[in-house]
Write a structure and sequence with these properties.
Elements: H1 3-19, H2 21-25, H3 27-41, H4 54-72, H5 84-94, H6 104-138
Length: 142
């Protein structure tokens, strides 16, 4: 599986977590899709994303998040972009064993945290829209 396809799968997963309630509630389907992504990144098939594979992980996560954000958020919305430093922090948070590798379960924590960022951005966008509508309705003069 090529990197482009893997990045698209991450983007599709993240977007579905925000926009598709049924998918967001189906942990088995999420794990199935993300197993395919994990296995594509785990090129040496040792069951973990190790230091040699981390660069690919970072690139794919940033690409996937950016594509998902473009789909579900306005361009000026908060959390439209995620930086390499943010992904590195998410990696550290997910790495429960502190061995600088991610098992599949730790990888899922990283992906879930990315989903939370995207959902937070969508919620902020919705609140901004509501506030703008409310402000506009107050300015209508009869």
């Amino acid at each position: 599986m090529g990197n482009y396809h893997t990045g698209r799968m991450i983007a599709d997963h993240l977007a579905c977590m925000v926009e598709d309630y049924g998918y967001a509630q189906n942990r088995q389907e999420q794990r199935k899709k993300m197993t395919e992504v994990f296995n594509a990144i785990d090129q040496n098939h040792n069951g973990a994303i190790d230091h040699k594979e981390t660069r690919d992980l970072m690139d794919l996560v940033i690409e996937g998040y950016h594509a998902a954000a473009q789909k579900v958020l306005d361009d000026h919305a908060p959390h439209h972009e995620v930086s390499p430093a943010e992904v590195a922090n998410l990696f550290k948070e997910a790495d429960k064993e502190k061995d600088k590798e991610l098992t599949f379960d730790e990888f899922m924590v990283l992906i879930d945290n990315l989903c939370e960022l995207l959902i937070e951005g969508k919620n902020m966008q919705n609140l901004s829209s509501i506030a703008a509508s409310h402000k506009a309705s107050k300015q209508i003069n009869f």
